[in-house]
Amino acid sequence: MNNITKQSFMEKKSMSQDLVTLIKQQILNGELNPGDRIVETKVAKELGISQTPVREAVRMLSGEGIINIVPNRGPIVKEIEERDIFEIYSLRASLEGLAMRLTTLHASKEQIQLLVDLYAEMESKLHNPEVDSLLKESLYLHHSIIQFSRHSRLMQIYDSISFQIELVNRIIGMKSTKQKEFDEHKELIDALRKGNPDESERVMRRHIHRSFKECIKALQDNGSADRTDISKLWPEENE
C-alpha cells in the first residue's frame, strides 16, 4: 500500500469513526429517535462526503447494536425493549461487580480517597439549588471504579456499553433526584472503606440491579414493555 493510498484509507477510517460519534450524539439529544431511518445518501449529501464512510459508520453502529439493518428499509435506529435492558444491565452488574472487587483489593489509599472525595463533592452539591442533577458525578464515580480495577479488557467492554446505558436512560426517560443519587452511592463508598472484596462486589451488583428494575418499570410506565416476565431471568441479588 503506497503512502497516498494508506493516507486515503486512514482518512476514510477516521471519517467513519467521526460519523459514528455524530450519529450517537444525534440519538442522545433526540435528533434521531428509535424507529427513525438513517438515509445514507442524505447524510453523505448534507456532510459533503461520499457514501463510503457513511456506509462504514452504519456497519459499525450495527455491530454495536445501536441500529438495525432492515430489509427494504435500510438502517433503522433500534427500539429499546425489555430484553435489551436485561442484557445491558446484567452485563453491567457482572463488569462493575468485578471492578468493585478488584478496586477493593488493589486500589491505592490515594485512589480510595479520590473516590471518597468524589462522593464528598456529590454531598456538597446536594443542597446547591444551582445544581440540577448528580448524574454526571455518579457516572464519573462508576467510571473511576472501573479504571481503578486495573483490568484493561474489562475497561474496553465497559466502554462499549456506556453509550447504550445513556441511550436507555434517554429513550425511556429515566430520572433521578439528587437525594436518591447521593443516598444510593453511600453504600458503595462504605463498602470500599471496609475493604471486604466479597461485600463490595455484592453491594455493587445490588446497586446495578436496582437500576435495572427502575428501567423496566419506566419502560412499563411508558407502555413499551413486552409480555415477557424479564424479572425471572435476573432475580433479586442476594443480600
TrEMBL record:
<keyword id="KW-0804">Transcription</keyword>
<dbReference type="InterPro" id="IPR008920">
    <property type="entry name" value="TF_FadR/GntR_C"/>
</dbReference>
<dbReference type="GO" id="GO:0003700">
    <property type="term" value="F:DNA-binding transcription factor activity"/>
</dbReference>
<feature type="domain" description="HTH gntR-type">
    <location>
        <begin position="13"/>
        <end position="80"/>
    </location>
</feature>
<protein>
    <submittedName>
        <fullName>GntR family transcriptional regulator</fullName>
    </submittedName>
</protein>
<dbReference type="InterPro" id="IPR000485">
    <property type="entry name" value="AsnC-type_HTH_dom"/>
</dbReference>
<dbReference type="InterPro" id="IPR036390">
    <property type="entry name" value="WH_DNA-bd_sf"/>
</dbReference>
<dbReference type="Pfam" id="PF00392">
    <property type="entry name" value="GntR"/>
</dbReference>
<keyword id="KW-0805">Transcription regulation</keyword>
<keyword id="KW-0238">DNA-binding</keyword>
<dbReference type="Pfam" id="PF07729">
    <property type="entry name" value="FCD"/>
</dbReference>
<dbReference type="InterPro" id="IPR000524">
    <property type="entry name" value="Tscrpt_reg_HTH_GntR"/>
</dbReference>
<dbReference type="InterPro" id="IPR036388">
    <property type="entry name" value="WH-like_DNA-bd_sf"/>
</dbReference>
<dbReference type="InterPro" id="IPR011711">
    <property type="entry name" value="GntR_C"/>
</dbReference>
<dbReference type="GO" id="GO:0043565">
    <property type="term" value="F:sequence-specific DNA binding"/>
</dbReference>
